Amino acid sequence: MSQPINSPLVKMTLLFVSTLAVMASATIAPSLPIMREHFADVDNVDYWVRLVLTAPSLFVAIGAPFAGFMIDSIGRKTLLAITLIMYGLAGSSGLWLNSIGLILVGRALLGLSVAGIMTTATTLIADYYTGTTRAKFLGLQAAFMALGGVVFLSGGGFLAEVNWRMPFLLYSVALLLLPLVLLILPEPRRNSQSSGQQSSSQTQAVSFPFALVVLTYTIAFLAQVVFYMVPVQLPFYLQALTNASASQSGLAIALATLFAAIGSILYQRIKARLSFMSVYEIAFFGIGVGYGLICFANGYGMVLPGLAIAGFGLGLLLPNMNLCLTSIAPDTLRGRTLGGLTTCFFLGQFISPLLSQPLSQLVGLRVAYGLAGILVIVLALVTFVVMSRQKRLA
Questions:
Q1: Which DSSP string do the residues of 115-143 spell out, in sequence order?
Q2: How far is Cα of residue 107 from the mean position of the Cα atoms in its chain?
Q3: What is the pLDDT of residues 50-64, one digit of tens each?
């Protein structure tokens, strides 16, 4: 029997479902060095192993627009149930597949399932709640996702100590959530209000802030290219620097995720006193300084403060982008505008190893982290120049 939307069971189900997006990629990050050794006889294994981590991001970006159409045609719960099954089966396929090519196919299907899960979970939150209740729950969702990432990353690191395949087992948790979705979540009633919105969208589109939207998309893309160097490259960097184990790499990545959660939790208090631009500057400089510390670290203990500072900056950056776009985009274009942000966000994750791997091979991982930090500082200056002309973004 479905529960009332204010039921703790409904809220916890939505929160647990939301964490699946976080664990989709980074959970297996601590396994990457061991996986590379297992497939050492495969040509270009460094690229293929890193693509195993980031392939879901590309297919989230591809699948998200289609998921938005499917939600309205087959219903929220139906799509969520289908994608949960796909998530559990495709995500755990690395437990038994012996070809890195087939593992990549499983990761692609995992990405498509994440697109459906993310879109449906956020849509259900918007369906169930309004006003301040919705805003607070979306904030709780972001924090819960980040904290869930800490648990999954840490667990993935310890499971990788047993065998590189074991972290894939964590994806089967989606199948445990399936009964909760089917029995507890109510299917919301949907209104068709599109007819009265077309004329307003035409008038509002005239003042659509294209420059700021493009800037925000660019920020999302580059921020993920830079920050995803943590799960993609950090295990290799720590292994070369201190011969760190998989569990140590998992804990280090989890630390960055933990401080990202702290930044997201504190975002509302910080934003209440500062402008969007000021929050961007703090976030960018935090990431830049953090990467600088990683670059100059000479031991495991010195990498951790850099990860914490960079993670905190990212935790401020993500909600600031969402709220900024929500504030500047016309109501009738808000969904598509935020959908574009999701696409840029996950494309950045996918492309990160394609850019960072040749760079790290050319100059080394230490210098690559330093250059990434400089890029973020430059992005901060560009953002200041563009956004300082937009007085409405106070």
A1: HHHHHHHHHHHHHH--HHHHHHHHHHHHH
A2: 15
A3: 788 878 888 988 887
